[in-house]
Design goal:
The protein is mostly helical. It has a domain of about 250 residues: 3-Layer(aba) Sandwich (Rossmann fold). It is built from 29 helices and five strands. It has a five-stranded parallel sheet, with helices on both faces. Helix 7 runs antiparallel to helix 8, helix 10 runs parallel beside helix 12 and helix 16 runs antiparallel to helix 17.
């Protein structure tokens, strides 16, 4: 005990080098002290001396072959060098030696997560918590695992427990804040990010998370300050650099733009960070009307992202659309006319991303009888849960029965209404890609209404190409893939117009910009709502906006986004080759 106490004091006062010398001196006197070898292994790992660390950890296991701690620490040494299979064997030996060693179960769960054996990782982490339910780190890792598996309710509970059991754990608060922000709970997320930074001002995920939620609520200066705080600690941080450049006005970030150019010119930056920086730099140059530079940055960003994600799987997309069209016929819906629940409260805004969906939601949300919910993941999630295991989510229409349709409808309504004031006639779900799930929506809500937004194909494609989308949007990195994706979207929308038993209206972005009040009146008439002039003041809304259009919809309507493709025609010939005709309506070919 005296040795351990002196060792901890050496670590806190003099760092790992002093602690290493302390261990070595002790081992000269007591060469068979397994604990000293074990501690030495951890100290050397901290100092990056992997081979000496491995020798010390192996020696500890030789001297104490039944000591769970020695095997667990050997596993940690292996894991620190990426030898996860060797680490796995050590952790399994550790829990076999002492099934009540919570730390060994925790480490085993971490290792299993690394090698993507998630079910086993769940079991190991739960066993660790059964032995010690106050382990904040274990709650945090279990929450991360649940979030990755889209079990968000359980994940949030784990993050809350992590924060409860360790009041100094900044990571638990920022991770919980991230999940709550993704679910639209922006106010609570902001509080948690600020709390995490109060605990640890150098916690970069806290600064990044706070910056994003401040963007969502329109606090430009606050968001900029957050990203600058990150860059002050790490001048090469790709996400902070990209976000700042995408946000900054005028030439206030010339130094950061120069740093981005420097990073993109070399080959030391990996592809995903390169994409993050490139997308931000493209927006920076676009705002300054340097379209040639914006095009160059966009080409770098999309080439890097494409190396990470690969191209669009065109055959799979076309097959998906074929099967939806073949299944969701007029007769199919007629035979299921008793499915679902009768409420008409949900309104679905769909279309391609960057086609005016956020603008349309903002207009409607200013009406006192309408509440905008943002982009909800719940239809896609419920469809995925409904489909037979192994089937694509769209095949949920095959798996669901009459009783199941009502259960799933109520499940969606519970998520939709959470936290919403009573008395709202309509709740608007603005998830653009729900156009793939309109057949499923019709089975759940036969009285729902659908607002389909569309835009000039060239402008739409350019806007998507310049946006840092989720990595699953593989079509957005290449104009030919965008053209193919657009053609399949047109084909599916034409089918829905002919066969979908839901009321649907088409809204053109160009017509909205060109005749704003008539379009606003047309939208309200579609929803059987009285006229309210507040809908013309969409940009004055204080609601959080969690889409790439967050800053555009906080300004009065402007026309500079119309025929924006002309600014890039000379710099991006691939755009005009892929879209030789500017299709303005989804039915045009």
């Amino acid at each position: 005990m005296e040795f351990t106490t002196r060792l901890e004091a050496a670590l806190s006062q003099g760092g790992w080098q002093v602690a290493r010398e302390h261990c070595l001196q002790h081992l000269r006197q007591f060469p068979r002290d397994a604990d000293a070898h074990r501690h030495l292994a951890m100290i050397l790992t901290r100092g990056g001396e992997s081979l000496p660390a491995l020798r010390a950890a192996v020696r500890a296991c030789e001297l104490a072959p039944r000591d769970s701690r020695s095997w667990s620490d050997l596993g940690r040494v292996h894991a620190s060098s990426g030898r996860y299979l060797q680490a796995l064997g050590s952790f399994e030996t550790a829990v076999a030696a002492d099934p009540n060693h919570a730390d060994a179960w925790h480490n085993l769960g971490l290792c299993l997560r690394k090698i993507r054996r998630r079910d086993e990782a769940f079991s190991a982490l739960k066993q660790a918590l059964m032995l010690d339910g106050t382990r904040a780190d274990t709650w945090l890792i279990l929450g991360n695992l649940l979030a990755e598996s889209r079990q968000l309710e359980d994940a949030v509970e784990c993050f809350e427990r992590a924060a409860k059991h360790d009041s100094t754990l900044a990571r638990a608060r920022s991770r919980l804040g991230h999940e709550l922000a993704n679910r639209g709970c922006v106010g609570r997320a902001e509080h948690l990010f600020r709390e995490s930074l109060g605990l640890d001002p150098s916690h970069l995920p806290g600064w990044l998370g706070l910056g994003r939620v401040l963007e969502d609520v329109g606090e430009f200066d606050g968001a900029m300050a957050c990203y600058r705080n990150v860059l002050a600690r790490d001048a090469r941080h790709p996400l902070a650099l990209g976000q700042l450049l995408a946000l900054v006005r005028d030439d206030a970030a010339s130094a950061e733009a120069a740093k981005a150019d420097e990073l993109l010119a070399g080959d030391s930056v990996a592809d995903e960070p390169r994409a993050l920086i490139g997308y931000g730099l493209a927006k920076y140059h676009d705002r300054r009307r340097d379209y040639a530079a914006a095009a160059r940055a966009g080409l770098v960003a999309n080439a890097a992202r494409r190396r990470v994600t690969g191209p669009l799987q065109r055959d799979a997309l076309a097959s998906r659309v074929d099967q939806i069209i073949d299944t969701c016929t007029t007769d199919f819906f007629a035979s299921r006319r008793r499915f679902g629940v009768a409420t008409g409260q949900p309104v679905f805004i769909i279309g391609l991303p960057r086609s005016g969906t956020t603008l349309t939601e903002q207009i409607l949300s200013q009406h006192p009888d309408v509440h905008g919910m943002g982009e909800l993941p719940d239809i896609a999630r419920i469809a995925s849960d409904t489909a037979v295991e192994g089937d694509a989510p769209w095949r949920a229409v095959h798996a669901i029965g009459e009783a199941g349709s009502r259960e799933r409808a109520q499940e969606y309504l519970s998520a939709l209404r959470a936290g919403v004031p009573r008395g709202q006639k309509y709740l608007v779900d603005k998830s653009p890609l729900n156009f793939f799930h309109l057949g499923f929506i019709a089975l759940l809500f036969p009285n729902a209404r659908v607002i389909h937004c569309h835009r000039d194909a060239r402008d739409n494609a350019l806007s998507m190409w310049m946006e840092n989308f989720n990595v699953t949007q593989t079509h957005a990195t290449d104009f030919d893939d965008l053209a193919f994706y657009h053609s399949q979207y047109q084909r599916l929308m034409s089918h829905w117009r002919a066969h979908l038993p839901l009321r649907m209206i088409d809204v053109s972005y160009e017509e909205t910009v060109g005749g704003f009040e008539p379009q606003a009146r047309r939208l309200l008439k579609f929803l059987d709502l009285h006229w309210d002039a507040r809908c013309l003041e969409f940009h004055a809304s204080e609601r959080a906006v969690q889409t790439p259009s967050r800053w555009q919809v906080r300004k009065p309507l402007y026309r500079s986004s119309l025929e924006r493709w002309r600014n890039y025609a000379a710099h991006l010939p691939g755009l005009l080759q892929a879209f030789p005709i500017a299709n303005k309506h989804p039915d045009q070919s």
